[in-house]
Amino acid sequence: AQKITQTQPGMFVQEKEAVTLDCTYDTSDPSYGLFWYKQPSSGEMIFLIYQGSYDQQNATEGRYSLNFQKARKSANLVISASQLGDSAMYFCAMRGANTGTASKLTFGTGTRLQVTL
Amino acid sequence: NAGVMQNPRHLVRRRGQEARLRCSPMKGHSHVYWYRQLPEEGLKFMVYLQKENIIDESGMPKERFSAEFPKEGPSILRIQQVVRGDSAAYFCASSPQRQGNYGYTFGSGTRLTVV
User: Hey, is the C-beta of A104 within 8 angstroms of any chain B C-beta?
Assistant: First the structure.
């Protein structure tokens, strides 16, 4: 079974500061993928960043970077230079590689980020 | 270049009625996934379909819920005899291949309210 744990139900960050959203995972699959999604108040799910378990380097996409520590089974999202528009729910998710886990994403419970002036 | 299209955006049903949620995948995507999000929770996988085939329905409730992805037309998630506990946001995602590394594109969701 796969499990994603997001222990921060809510976070505050000041505009222009960096913030780290925590995500730990558990899986028995030797190969897997990790995703972060943003869900603003309007409700849609916006893909942010992907990290493969065998990728040599941490993923980066603009102001988003993924701090992947395989031994610790953590995949924290770092948002640099926060903007007011970053206020949203953020979900960490994973996909396995085996028959039962390759076709679905397992999501965490999310972290609500509020960016303040 | 339309993304994943879901309709309706909002759906209100009385207890006992049927709800039909539609999802048109992105152009070129032949794999469709349905997820349910209860209030203040993350998304939970329901079912994975390809054209005319259900590949994985391990997350579907055993009763009242069904899904299809016909050769022509959108994927349909059907909920029969809805109950208050079915109130949730239902998201559809599509990908061009089974293991979508970057290809999980989600629609905007359908918010179902059962009154």
Answer: yes
What SS3 state is found at B86? Answer: helix
Give Cβ neighbours of residue A111 (< 8 Å, ≥ 6 apart): A6, A8, A9, A10, A11, A21, A22, A89, A90
A70 neighbors A54 (Cβ within 8 angstroms) = no
At residue B84, the pLDDT reads 96
Q: Nearest CB to B48: which of A46, A93, A103?
A: A103
Contact indicator for A24, A72 with CB cutoff of 8 Å = yes
- Report whether pLDDT(B1) > 60: no
DSSP state of A46: E
Mean pLDDT over each residue of chain B, to the nearest integer: 91
Q: Which residues of B touch A50 (CB under 8 A)?
A: 101-102
